[in-house]
């Protein structure tokens, strides 16, 4: 996804998105299993959502 921030910016926004979505889900009482696949899915979804939001704001 190109958010107009370059490769490093996209990676950093993606990591931040994964952390934010994990935090939101934990706050709501929804825990991704400690296995790598659920964490990968939640991380990818969080990254996509934050990059999408970044693109809408900028």
General form: elongated
What is the radius of gyration computed over CA atoms, rounded to a whole number of angstroms?
A: 12 Å
Overall mean pLDDT stands at 82
Question: Which band does the percent of strand residues land in?
Answer: under 5%
Report the total helices.
2
Overall structural class, as computed from helix and strand content, comes to mainly alpha
Could you give the count of β-strands? 0
Q: How many angstroms does the end-to-end distance come to?
A: 14 Å
Helicity range = over 70%
| Tally of discrete structural domains | 1
The description of the largest β-sheet is: none
Order of helices and strands: HH
- Uncertain stretches: none
Describe the structure.
The two termini are 14 Å apart. This protein is elongated. The mean pLDDT is 82. Helix 1 crosses helix 2. 12% of the residues are buried. The protein is mainly α and 58 residues long. It is a multi-pass membrane protein. Keywords: Cell membrane, Membrane, Transmembrane, Transmembrane helix. InterPro entries: Transgly_assoc. Its main location: membrane.
Write the topology of this structure.
Blueprint (H helix, E strand, L loop, with lengths): L5 H22 L8 H22 L1
Provide tags for this entry.
single chain; 58 residues; mainly alpha; elongated
Task: Summarize it.
By secondary structure, the protein is mainly α. The chain has 2 helices and no strands. The protein is elongated and about 35 Å long.
């Amino acid at each position: 996804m190109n958010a107009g921030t370059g490769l490093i910016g996209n990676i950093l926004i993606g990591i931040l998105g994964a952390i934010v979505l994990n935090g939101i889900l934990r706050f709501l009482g929804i825990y991704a299993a400690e296995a790598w696949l659920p964490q990968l899915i939640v991380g990818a979804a969080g990254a996509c959502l934050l990059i999408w939001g970044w693109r809408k704001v900028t």
